[in-house]
Write a structure and sequence with these properties.
single chain, 855 residues, mainly alpha, two-stranded antiparallel sheet, elongated
Length: 855
Amino acid sequence: MGKKQKIILPPDLPPDVADDEIEVSDEDLQFVNDNVDYAGFVSNLDTNLITKHVTRVADVKEDALEALYEKRSKKKSLEKKKEDNEIEVDRVDALPIKTLDGQLHFRTAPKTAKKPGTVGSDQIDGDSSDDGVEASLVKLTKPEKRAKLKKGRKEAKKQEKDAVKSEVQPTPQEQVLAEVEKELTAEESNKAMKFRLAELGTELLMDPESNIKSLKEMLQICNKGDHSITVIGLKSLLAVFKDIIPGYRIRLPTAKEQEMVVSKAIKKMRLYESTLLSVYKAYLNKLIALEKQQPLKRVAVRCLCTLLDAHPHFNYWESLLAAVLKNLNSTDEVVRKLCCATVKSLFTNEGKHGGEATVHAVRYIAEDVKASDCDLRPDSIEVFMSLTFDEDIGRAKITEEKKTKGKRNKMKRGTEEPSQVPANERKKNRKEQISKMRDEVKADLKAASFSQDEEEKKQIQSQTLSAVFGTYFRILTHTMQSIAARNVDTSNESTSQWGTFPLLAPCLDGIGKFAHHIDLDFMGDLITYLRKLAEGGGSSSDISGSIQSTKRLSIAERLRCCIVAFKVMRNNLDALNVDLQDFFVQLYSILLEYRAGRDQGEVLVEALKIMLCDDRQHDMQRAAAFIKRLSTFSLCFDSAEAMSALVTVKHLLQKNVKCRNLLENDAGGGSVSGPVAMYRPQVSDPNLSGALSTVLWELNLLRKHYNPMVSTLASTISTMSTATQNQVLLSYITPQQAYTQSSIEQETFDLKEDFGKNRKRKRGSESVVSDVDQDVKMGEADEDDVLRKKFCDHFVMVHDMSESKRLKDELSRTTLALDLFEKYKNQTKKKQSATTTKVVKKLKVVNKKKKMKLT
């Protein structure tokens, strides 16, 4: 504004010279003629274009010039209108056009897209453009308008086709770049979501009440992201819920309670609880839905199991428990083990839920067994083994209360004061006051303590027991019915995918564990069922019949039936009087049918211990029959079964002194004092086998057994005789311990001699060398024995030291516990004395007030 800009004027044009005055020299003509090629462009000039920009044209009439000027003015006005309706294209995107005048014209585009076939005010007809007449001012007839619309539509279709053709397909490089860009953006979004989940989780754990709304955002992130984000989101929500869920069930306020005016703290608490419940419900529904998807099934089941294990008391526990119990029969082994472990922990930790979840779970399993017709995996029934029941809960405390009541009544009778009030009314008033005080104290104790009421606990345990035994008896009846149907129709041999009777073995184990809780009214039916199942489902009179019946039940299942029968009898010894001879007969026949490797040796060893070793009284004929059969049994099988059988034989010989006559190797054989004078091994009844008339010649062969443990035990048994009747011979090892020890040592056992190689010896010097080698081997064996003794002594000393240290620690712990118990007793005595003094004072005050009223 301060300084004036200098205006630069263009240079002046040269003065006009007439054609007559122009003089061309000969030299110029000669130069042009010599250089015709340089002047050839003049012939290519367009004279028409040049005449457009010439203001004056020679030999033209004045009327034609005026018409020409009018056309040019109309064209200029139309171009201005076009410029007003058009937008100039960016100069970077398109190059300009330079005219002959030297001016630059940039490309333009219309402001609004024009519909094909329509004629606007700014549109110009191509035919009338030369005449300078606008198309909007021309009135067209109806057929002309229709023809024009058709042309416009055709042109629009052509333009669309050209646009589709002009679209260039992307190259493979561009496609790869686009995919890489998408992946990069997805990774960035996933990282952002992970960081956001971490932030929300930390905020919730720090202050859950003020940041409870962030739970919804975390759940939304789980729904938005891909597989990895959903897994991380589910796990983070699990950690948050596991931490912030309270130890009580949330009850939402009713409509009337919401209308009431409350404080800000209560409003905040209600908002917190309602949002927590809504998001928790949505989270559970999402887990149950994801459980059906294979890639996310394990993650969903793990979250459900951890929630049920941590908070089985919280809202929606029934749907959570149902989702876990459905997977007890899952084909996925990981999922099945997770659910079984969760249900077992639920049964053992009943203090968290008060036993409601236990009853619900047991009833659900019972209904599932009924619906599936006992065609489930054994894991679904083995869960019952972790249940625990109290025996006669609350009886001792009730008797103590009755005793204390009687003592207090006696004390009250002795300390009554004479008054004008009748004795009956005074007693009633005192009883009412004491009952009120006791009720108040009990209510306060229940509110303060988290322990469950004894009556409720008893009721819950009775319901669980009835459901458990209902499933067990259902399984037994189903096996009996199926065996009977197969005996009738031998072609019906279809088995389930988990075996012939998959639930029978866990059912028998459970009956053996909870046999002392069974009602005596069902004992007779149970023993008959077990007897029939031990026979294999039918009555077998001989060995061949029993072998045919084993097609129905396995050896292990039959042995379990015998074991359960003995457990039931021993737990109810005073109430039952049942003969168990049939079970001994079945065990006697099973010993011949047993095959090592095919059948379960642990079950056989348990049956030997319970039926033969633990029983105090045995018939002499039966004991002799089992001694003879077990000795022949030990000849045919592995060292583990042989050791357990020989240990059982030793137990029987120690208890039955008369059976040691089998060890006598006289010319006439064993004792012939029994009812049967000849040994008959083919008989199924051990009492009729006549085993006392034979000799244990098998022990002589077992003394040469390849396993040193078996050989030493056989030699010790053979040294027992009738001469040692008065000696007390005790064996501190059971058949089960012998079986486990020998099975462990059998894995690392090596033969000392190679019996398969037949070595040929030569005469002469080679015999001397062999003798020397034998002497060297004997010396090495003596050194090995010395070292073995030293190592044994050392390990015994170390073991004694560790045992003494452990006993000292246990002593210190027990003394501390006793001291604490004495302190607790003293404190409780002081509290009881204080409460009694308060009650006495209150009673005295009440009596004084009554006296004052009466006076």
